[in-house]
Design goal:
Blueprint (H helix, E strand, L loop, with lengths): L7 H22 L11 H13 L5 H20 L15
Helix pairs in contact: 1-2, 1-3, 2-3
């Protein structure tokens, strides 16, 4: 039996964030995936710009997607997959 941990809206937001991230990787790097260790301040800045310009997200939506991405980063740090947090000096507008 599947354990439900997220509300349907939360799951939808995560799926949309995943789609935006995959589109960003193709747009910026012509890649379908990237090593999580390559996510840095520049990646985050470019991702936010992509959301605002290419995806035409308003400020609140762009911030929410980047925050969702940040939650994934924190999971990676907690599991030891990342040694440092690329969000340390990053601030959302």
């Amino acid at each position: 039996m599947l354990k439900v941990e997220f509300a349907k809206g939360t799951l939808t937001r995560y799926k949309t964030c995943l789609n935006h991230t995959q589109e960003f990787l193709l747009w910026k790097y012509n890649l379908s995936e990237i090593d999580i260790k390559k996510v840095d301040y520049g990646f985050l800045s470019d991702f936010e710009m992509f959301l605002r310009t290419e995806k035409k997200c308003n400020n609140n939506s762009a911030v929410k997607y980047v925050k969702n991405f940040g939650e994934i980063i924190r999971i990676c740090i907690a599991n030891g997959w990342l040694e440092k947090d690329p969000f340390v000096h990053y601030s959302l507008k």
